[in-house]
Sequence to fold (411 residues):
Amino acid sequence: MGKLAVNGGPPVRKEAWPKWPQYGPSVKKALARVAESDVYCSQVGREVEMFEQEFAAYHGSAHSVAVANGTIALQAALAAAGIGCGDEVIVPAYTFAATAGAAVENNSIPVFVDCERLSEGLDPDDVCRKITPRTRAVMPVHMNGYPCDMDAVMDIASEHDLVVIEDCSHAHGAEHAGRKVGTIGHLGCFSLQQKKNLSVGEGGIVITDDAEAAERMRAMRGFGWAPVTRNWRMGEFYGAIGREQIKLLDGGNAKRRSNVAALLDALGSVDGIAPLPGLPNTTPTYYNLILQYDQSVFGVPRAVFVAALQAEGIPVYMFYVPVQRWPIFARADFFGRGCPFACPLHEGGPVDYRDVSTPVADAVCDRINLEIKVQPTCGEREMRDVAEAMRKIADNKAELKQLDEKMGKGA
Fold:
């Protein structure tokens, strides 16, 4: 296939990768409707209220509560469940920092667990090992749109009387055993940020069948009579966008699945590259397609392969590290004076995350995962380009070793 682009050869792809999201005419019409109304605040308008009703109906949930962003959705769900000082919340090590940060914002202690290998969601066995008398909640995360093992999570929660708060920020519309994620736990939280499968630019939403929890969250977001109260409201423009975007969600997710099928078909069998299998009886929505890299086959670290893939015109940006390794968690001092990690109400004593062991999450983040963009604005051309670039690199392993030497020398 010729010389690798990273070493001066022609790249597989020269065109820019398609942008995501690309908002259509219906969104722009909805924004104009709000602009012309002169009602931009959801305290007065109806757009956010209608979006809440439509989002709940899509999931078959009794209630949904829209807020300013996905992190606040997690904070509100934890606060509505009464999680606070001295409580421990089990979260996966492989997630975005906001999952654990939301627990800290509620003065509770994140306890990190490893991930299992099929979905890369939290490992139920490690959850069981990490439960203590102080554990009050568990927050499974459906990373990259692959549903995690909710049957096991709910069994554990039932046995230990734990609240389950699903973080579905990557998984709008994904299903586990025929049920949409977010409807299986006690509360389901979604980010609606710019990059997400359902994108409004910035926003979050919580679904639940618990009427009292929903009412508490509504009070919290708008300075109501609640122990935790903020201005967490979503604006009317975002609600109007959400009403249009939810109509497109199933079609967009179907396109993601079609793109994945096309990519895997074009890729065929490449030694050292394998798709994440996902759990049986689940329907992923592929916020990212995860391909798994085997360093022993290619003979170079993943960073070298990624550099070669990027040079061929394929966007691959490796972002995640196990959350306990984020500097703020390593310091265990969010608010000064060790709070909340050294809280006297936490009978487990001061927290030190430096000794947390999550070997699977470490491997996933440091050496294995390749996050491939398969958003609906892509098509078969983009998927063929990804496959061609990977095969080209696989056919030029000797060049990879030369690149590894250059990168090691800082060249």
Remarks:
- The mean pLDDT is 95.
- The domain at 25-245 is CATH 3.40.640.10 (Aspartate Aminotransferase; domain 2).
- The two ends are 25 Å apart (CA to CA).
- The CA atoms of residues 192 and 203 lie 5 Å apart.
